[in-house]
Write a structure and sequence with these properties.
Length: about 325
Amino acid sequence: MLHQSLSSDQRAPVARTRVTNCLRHYTIFLGPDFSLLNLSGFIQGLKIANDFMQNECFRWTIVSEHGNAVESSCGLTMPVGSDLPVPQGLDYIVVNMGLDQQLSPKAKAWLHSAARHGSSFGALDGAVVALAKSGCLTCEVPWSVHWHAFEAMREQFPEMTFSRRSFHHDTRVFSGAGATAGIDLALCEIQELLGDDIARKSADELNYSAQHRLQSMSGDMHPILSQIDNEKLRIAVAEMERTIEEAPPTEYFAQVAQISVRQLERLFKEHLELSPKRFFLNLRLEHARDLLLSTNLNVLDVAICSGFGSKTNFSKKFRERFGISAMKLRSS
């Protein structure tokens, strides 16, 4: 069995009342370019909890569309247990696939049928993108998406909430896009169903306690802020991200951060070696580049969505920044 091949030595059990039935069963659907790191982290976390409880509190079945082995993003191939099972009665479906992959009509129909029959959903790695495009995601909770796809998803699905956080865990719904999100989400599942003590012990067994705290504290913000601990600067950059389309002046961000313009400029120079104006311009141009690469918006619409009042000014700034015209990038 797969969970046996991924497990390590038998762990000493903890003093706790033994659970005598399965609490949750996961049908893990693998698509092309799935994340092997997230798959193994998720399963190993659950396996450790089972070892502590001396029972299969968590069970899983790994499937693919036709029952064939699936190649992961790192090139290793994973055998699976079966093809797509009958959708009725599936407890929890976890989809794991690459960022640029699409669900086939057969897989879409299977997922929609499972949803109608009450299955809950989890999404690992790039699966959120495919699930959103297939209409399988609820609008009621935020979904973690890789930062490469973040801007495009916000544009394509304005009614939904997407986040750059490594993972989100809600009742019967979860998503993870970070490199170690599989472990984080397994620990969240363990905490929900078995309590804080077993979750903490499982994290310790993975030597993961410090990293888990770091992941949990990761905000929905620009990746560069993971290197910055100045709260005023973090507030300003977060507001810049939120107001890309409006493109307010530097004075506005200083006001939001409750400091003077001079203080804000000093913080940007000290931590980012750029003026606030230049940093915000670069942020808007990066946003525009992401839209050009991942959406079908025309260049004028991209310029407007990135806070530029004219296509001419946008085109000039874009070429200066990236050494290629927006039009040429779109057609490449």
